[in-house]
């Protein structure tokens, strides 16, 4: 059945026959963000899943700390941290099957790592030795996307193509609250809904687009409400409640895989660190506000639940910490080695075959490099 | 022995045939854009494709150019070969960010792991009496973006050959279709289409000895007409049809200029920051000692595209081309 047949043609009809083609009520998000931890729903949560989430959160927090430290040491050019947002980052990766695709924004290196990409490769962009350090096809992770929301239509197109080919693939696309103001956010959601593409849009509402608070970004009741205008369901979830994020995203992925179309998920979280190491957050927010969010920390919330249910003891915490330390030590070791650069790489992948013009420029650079190295350029003279 | 009748065909028909043949040859080829399905495109270039291949292969999209090209990126990531139609030159601008930040550089960003074989068809140029935003020459923007190929046909046969080559290319191609040549006719046999030329080769459209007119797309027939008119002045002009702006065929262009010693670049695009500046610089850098005069440019004025009732004053015509040829310092000859 085509989308048109599912939903009715919605052709102009003279009044009084005109009516909306669907009841918007089922698409509306709940009034409160969905929570699991500390609620009755927690009892139903799978202990193994909670333990796995905990291990990933602890590792994710350590990853953020290590990457931030590497930036201060000059090993990374810049690092946009997801400290405090680890629940969204790791859950986004964990809800996907191997054949699915993840479309991260530049802030989502943690999700990329949680998906299985080597941390050194995930951080290549931010170290600055190339743009995308990993093969997107290997782990089915699109390149980290810097221009805001422009990766969202890619996710829609890929999911649409997979469905046309008869493949059972879902795309999960990540974006921030600021990104929802971009035109590409609108176009991606509209295309996804019209095509009923198997896509899940995860908006991490972390309160700030660099310095600009959400109130200056939108007048919508919530970002999840925007879904209704496109004819897709919107879900609101506590983004620091790892179990809740995992459940809501899993439901959305299942819904998409079953042919139910896209879902917009807004996860309410908080960017505890500044935008990047180059930002000074004290210019636009009070420390006291940051402190209130520390009490709603994703690791603390999960640790409380696990401890209360007898699923986590000191040994368990230590094991999680040790695994995180091992990851951090390995990352330090690898990132403290200078990357091997070959300037001639500038010309290798601009086109499948370099144009005559690029071949000339490549020879120019080669001659410059040879001159730099003190060698005689081939032919003996400059071009 | 039977001979297939070679009938006159229009450029639009040749483009349709190229799309159809590409879709038949490769199930990965998908056509998408505004009005390309049921209607067959506002210029009818996609006529019949939705009927023949189904709406999943020739898709009417929502009216949003960034979304069209952005979703095409995702489709190409998954192994499809999208052919995107932008309805008009100036309506392609919303897709610039996708084109420049993603389409042009995805291969480079990913060290060759994620090439994007996308063809973006853009009807361009004036001369059809279009009201504003329907007649822009946008090629300079595309030429200035590394990672894109930029091609434009001037003949019916090239329209077919270049479009097939563009769709077959593993690199993104901006395929500029000269609107006012859509209905130009030529003897062309659709049953035996010309072999597909590789992208990047210019062709001498009319041989001559006195000077070279370097041009492309909608200005090619104008230059050929100017060359015919120039015979009365005693000039035998060569016309080089670039066909491909990126990559640029320095070899063919310079071989011609070295023969003739004089050159004029002709295009509808504005002259300041337009393709002619780049072409003149390339010719001068390579052929300086063969040149009898500076390379001149005949271009559209550096004004927003004029309203239709004034466009004839803007577009390079035969007289303006001949005026430029007359300024090529012929006095040195005598």
Structural commentary:
The complex is a heterodimer of chains A (383) and B (334). In chain A, α2 runs antiparallel to α13 and α8 (151-164) runs parallel beside α9. Helix content of chain A is 43%, strand content 8%. The radius of gyration of chain A is 23 Å and the shape is globular. With 383 residues, chain A is α/β, with parallel strands linked by helices. The model of chain A has no long low-confidence stretch (mean pLDDT 94). Chain B is an alpha/beta fold and 334 residues long. In chain B, 34% of the residues lie in helices and 19% in strands. Chain B contains twelve helices and 14 strands. Chain B has helices spanning 11-25, 49-53, 65-77, 96-103, 106-109, 139-143, 156-168, 219-230, 250-260, 275-287, 311-314, 318-326, and strands spanning 8-10, 29-33, 58-60, 81-85, 119-124, 149-151, 173-178, 185-187, 203-206, 211-215, 237-241, 244-246, 263-270, 296-300. A seven-stranded mixed beta sheet of chain B has the order 3-2-4-5-7-6-12, with helices on both faces. Chain B has a five-stranded mixed beta sheet with strand order 9-11-10-13-14, sandwiched between helices. In chain B, α8 packs across α12 and α9 (250-260) packs across α10 (275-287). Classes of the chains: A alpha/beta (383), B alpha/beta (334). Chain B: It comes from Streptomyces djakartensis. Chain B: This is 3-methyl-2-oxobutanoate dehydrogenase (2-methylpropanoyl-transferring). Chain B: Residues 9-184 form the Transketolase-like pyrimidine-binding domain. Chain B: Keywords: Oxidoreductase.
